Amino acid sequence: MTNLKTTHRRNLLKSVAVAAGAMAAPMIAKAQTGPISMRWQSTWPAKDIFHEYALDYAKKVNDMTGGDLKIEVLPAGAVVPAFGLLEAVSKGTLDGGHGVLGYHYGKQNALALWNSGPAFGMDANMMLSWHKYGGGQELLAKLYASIGGNVQSFLYGPMATQPLGWYKKPITKVEDFKGLKFRTNGLAIDLFTAMGAAVNALPGGEIVPAMDRGLLDAAEFNNASSDRLLGFPDVSKVCMLQSYHQSAESFEIMFNKTKYDALPSKMKAIIAGATEAASADMAWKAIDRYSKDYIELQTKDKVKFYKTPDSILQAQLKLWDAILVKKSAENPLFKEVAESQKAFAERAVKWDQDTNISRRMAMNHFFGAKTAAPKKA
Predict the structure, then answer these.
(1) N or C, fewer C-beta in 10 Å, the chain?
(2) Exposed (0-12), middle (13-18) or buried (19+): which is 144, by Cβ within 10 Å?
(3) How far apart are CA 166 and CA 241, in angstroms?
(4) pLDDT at 15 (0 to 100)
(5) DSSP structure class, residue 134
(6) Does the structure show a pLDDT above 80 at 238?
(7) What residues contact 244, with CB distance under 8 A and at least 6 apart?
(8) Spatial CA neighbour of 227 closest among 165, 313, 154
(9) What distances in angstroms separate CA 7 from CA 1, 12, 16, 76, 202, one per listed residue?
(10) For 280-283, which contacts have Cβ atoms below 8 Å and span 24 or more sequence positions?
(11) CA 73, CA 71: separation in Å to the nearest integer?
(12) What is the pLDDT of residues 184-210, one digit of tens each?
């Protein structure tokens, strides 16, 4: 009897274990329902190289997660207008997006300090260094909290110095901006307004049509490839190179924070690594593509490039000083961000200027007249 009881007890326990396993199986399956899908939107037209960068980023994350996270990126306007991205991601209408901080200028002007102005002499890579190691990351989170932004932001992709813009004729002095109907964004609105322009902030895809209809006299966007793809050579044959209005900009990757926080820790680590990998890849691709399109603009599109006169660059710096004072007095968070950037730039830019050699001498030596600087206006 003892053996029978023991056997019966063992069989009973085994049956309970099997039943428990059968009950647990659907629960496990429910928790692992397959890949996580996210619908994103960029702030760029489908034909712009910037949208290509957004697609590159999504592919890198999708590949690195082994397909466990699948990000689909739609072009600007597919769900919301370009300037509506922050609100859409914050509310969860979109799971994420690709853009720039300056596009949120109207909600909190200090956000544009990551994309507008001379950045105290820093280039975009230095700005990203300040963002990661100099306190910028924490300040950005603080700014989003101040406007109730339910987003997790990652900055990546250092941009080259942006042109002063596209014009009907070369710009030779600050007075040439007086009354000029001009497109820009972010704090560059304040800068060009102070220079005398009548500024209209339009997203990338709307600029060339506005110039074609005469709603704009001139405009800036970003780089040789974007400007060419968006059709700037069709409405202007004069481009002024070099400016302090956006000399240190980078892209922003934005997740809805609620959805981001729910992701597994391993996936968050992959996203962080993919962002830095995409940053390097974007910078390398930009050098290759922009340099090719810079030549094409001159040879095929017959665009004439001019260097912005130093007198205009000096005027930009002086006007920027006044903008910093005014905005800092109006917005304590603006002041906090600007002071943090300035403290980092003082040592970083000095180190850079003291350490890195100018490439112009080497270019002239190896390539001679072919690499002459752009014409003076």
Answers:
(1) N
(2) buried
(3) 9
(4) 42
(5) S
(6) yes
(7) 117, 118, 191, 313, 316, 317, 320
(8) 165
(9) 10, 8, 14, 69, 80
(10) 281/56, 281/60, 282/53, 282/56, 282/57, 282/156, 282/157, 282/251, 283/125, 283/157, 283/158
(11) 6
(12) 999 999 999 999 999 999 988 899 999
Which residues partner with 240 through β-bridges? 165, 306
Predicted confidence band of residue 5 (pLDDT cuts 50, 70, 90):
very low
Q: Would you list the DSSP string of 192-247? A: HHHTT-EEE---GGGHHHHHHTTS-SEE--S-HHHHHHHTHHHH-SEEEE--STBS
Q: Whose structure tokens read 């997006």? A: 97
Distances (CA, A) of 337 to 82, 109, 111, 236, 328: 25, 11, 9, 37, 9
Q: Place 377 in a pLDDT band, splitting at 50, 70 and 90.
A: confident
| pLDDT average, residue stretch 128-134 | 98
Q: Which two tokens stand for residue 223?
A: 């780089």
Using a pLDDT cut of 90, give the percent of the chain over it: 86
Q: Would you call 76 helix, strand, or coil by DSSP? A: coil
Of 187, 181, 227, 225, nearest in space to 204 by CA: 227
Provide the residue type at 322 as one letter.
A
Sheet containing 250-256: which strands, arranged edge to edge? 69-74, 36-42, 96-99, 250-256, 151-158
pLDDT value, residue 56? 98
Tokens of 114: 């990551």
C-alpha span between 151 and 92 (Å, rounded): 9
Task: Tell the CATH superfamily of the 33-158+248-288 domain.
Answer: Bacterial extracellular solute-binding protein, family 7 (3.40.190.170)
pLDDT tens-place string over residues 138-157: 999 999 999 999 999 999 99
What stretch of H or E contains 266?
helix 265-299
250: nearest Cα among 275, 279, 227, 270: 279
Q: Is 90 within 8 Å of 259 (Cβ atoms)? A: no
Model pLDDT, residue 2: 40
Half-sphere exposure (CA, 13 Å, Cβ side) for 262?
11
Return the biggest CA–CA distance within the chain.
Answer: 109
